[in-house]
Specification:
single chain, about 130 residues, mainly alpha, two-stranded antiparallel ribbon, about 5% strand, flat
Length: about 130
């Protein structure tokens, strides 16, 4: 499996000009794990999923995070990997809260979300060719 993932990563051109989208791809995968974990816990909170089931399932899914992070650091340092993961996770989990769980975001908080997305573009930029 390890060789398959590395082969797949190396078979794709992740760069467009000075922008490398590999950190964003890893951040997205890790953010999707966050979304599953936090969505499960929100369902426990809402009473739509039994606590034991939700906590066990959420914890089991979250166990994947260190393995994905370790693989990501093979291609990018810890600082950028963590920041990209957090920015994407904040966006995805927030949108999940709004569109799936009916929570609301108002006013300047939407501007903050947009600034997070601009930050992602800046983190994708690389002066290394």
């Amino acid at each position: 499996m390890k060789d398959f993932v590395d082969s797949l990563i190396k078979s794709i051109n992740w760069k467009i000009g000075n922008f490398s989208f590999l950190p964003i791809a890893f951040g997205t995968v890790m953010a999707l794990v966050d979304m599953c974990m936090m969505g499960g816990i929100k369902m426990v909170h809402n009473g739509t999923l039994p606590a034991v089931t939700g906590v066990i399932m959420s914890s089991a899914v979250y166990l994947l995070q260190p393995l994905i992070f370790l693989k990501a650091m093979k291609y990018q340092g810890m600082a950028v990997t963590n920041l990209v993961w957090n920015l994407i996770s904040n966006t995805i989990v927030t949108l999940q809260g709004v569109f799936i769980f009916g929570e609301s975001i108002k006013g300047l908080r939407w501007v903050a979300m947009a600034m997070g997305l601009v930050s992602l573009v800046l983190f994708a930029y690389s002066e290394d060719n």
